[in-house]
Amino acid sequence: MNLAETLVYADIKQLHQLAAAYSLTCNVHSKNELIQSLHGRLTSKSKLDEQRVSLSWEEKRFLLQVVYESRAEYTLEMLLSKARKACIDGDKGEKRTALLEHSLANGWIFRLHTGQTLKYVMPADIRSQWREIFVKEAQANAYGNYTPESFDSGVGALTDDLFTFLRYVSCHQVSLSKEGVMYRNHQQRMMSLFQVSEAFPDRKEWRFGYGRRFRDYPDRFALLYDYAHHRRLIREKPDEGLSVTEEGLRIVQQGSGQTEEILDDLFAFWMLSYRKAIPALSSLCLFIARICENNWIPESTLVPALVNWTVPFYYDKQEEIVRRRLLAMMAHLGVLYKGQNADAGNVYMLTDRGKSLLSKGTNL
After folding, report:
1. Neighbouring residues of 49: CB distance < 8 A, sequence distance ≥ 6
2. Cβ(195)–Cβ(161) below 8 Å
């Protein structure tokens, strides 16, 4: 539903409040004239850009969750939940309410009454304009276009290492500690076989919130391990250790024939595993995709440009969330190319697969 149609069905009280807020010189008793005046004001790109300058980071994070969704309608509870996720001190109810009220007062979100039901909508053209405004702002800060000397999509490596893990477990007697964790010698041998090797986590590091075994294994391998367990490709038994199930063996035997299907499934599983720690994960992925759509953006400018669009998660600071939980994992999952440039260091650009995968949720 675009703004023109939304204004026809919108709460008349909100329309009068908007007319007063924007000092419109029109006959407010004529709904047709009121709608025409509001439409011109609310779709003005220059006026929206002026509003952008005055937005707080809470307001930006709240709007980002709405503009990168395909959902057409919301309940009050849905929007208040998004407002909570946008606040670093998100337990303050008055701040959540203020974010929603400010969106209503500015004509970004509208109340619609359908019979006895009250619903909230963001018009499609308003949603699209805010999406473009936010991307341009981020691209202005994430500057630079550095062609890498080498780059990788991570696509083949991730599935190959999943198959390597399953083959290793099927060919070895992998015992588990009393906590259900693979002993370090097995982890080291297996890591030496992987296409992407990772450092083992510091035992002093506080690790939780990103999956079942995230505390026990390196970031990327923890995702592969949790995925294999979730999909019943492996079986844990305290007395017998780790083993591969019949389904796991079938996956290994089919090999590359299921690469694309497994990658899509791994991406969905990653979103499921990380969304508690990063509630706006899907919106942030789409946002990053747009920023990196056509140019190689250096990590040195991309991370600072994205930091305030996230919120910390306990001991995970915003910079770590952007660098390790978003950019690094999106590269492992084949959504972003990760390249190396002699002058800029790590650089990122959206892959064709990433564009195809993410566009299933909303138009990029």
Report:
1. 133
2. yes
Say if CB 181 and CB 221 are below 8 A apart.
no
Question: Pick from 117, 112, 118, 103: which is nearest to 60 by CA?
Answer: 103
Rounded Cα gap, residues 45 and 209, in angstroms: 40
Burial class (CB in 10 A: 0-12, 13-18, 19+), 168: middle
Strand partners, 350: 336
Q: Which of 26, 29, 31, 30 is nearest to 41 (CA)?
A: 26
User: What is the torsion angle, in degrees rounded to the nearest 10, for the CA atoms of residue 152, residue 186, residue 271 and residue 302?
Assistant: -40
Cβ neighbours for 340, distance < 8 A, ≥ 6 positions apart: 148, 149, 150, 151, 346, 347
Structural domains in the chain, sorted by start: 3-127 (1.10.10), 155-259 (1.10.10)
Mean of per-residue pLDDT scores for the chain: 92
Q: What is the pTM of this model?
A: 0.93
Q: Which residues contact 198 (CB under 8 A, 6 or more apart)?
A: 191, 218, 219, 220, 221
Tell me the two tokens of residue 22. 């924007």
Kindly state the tokens that stand for 59: 């307001």
How confident is the model over 324-353, as pLDDT tens digits?
A: 999 999 999 999 999 999 999 999 999 999
Beta-sheet pairing, 150-152 with 241-244: unpaired
Q: How far apart are CA 303 and CA 312, in angstroms?
A: 14
Percent share of the chain, pLDDT over 70? 98
For 125-154, the pLDDT digits (tens) are 999 999 999 999 999 999 888 999 999 877
Token pair, residue 263, equals 């990658």
Distance CA 44, CA 52 (A): 12
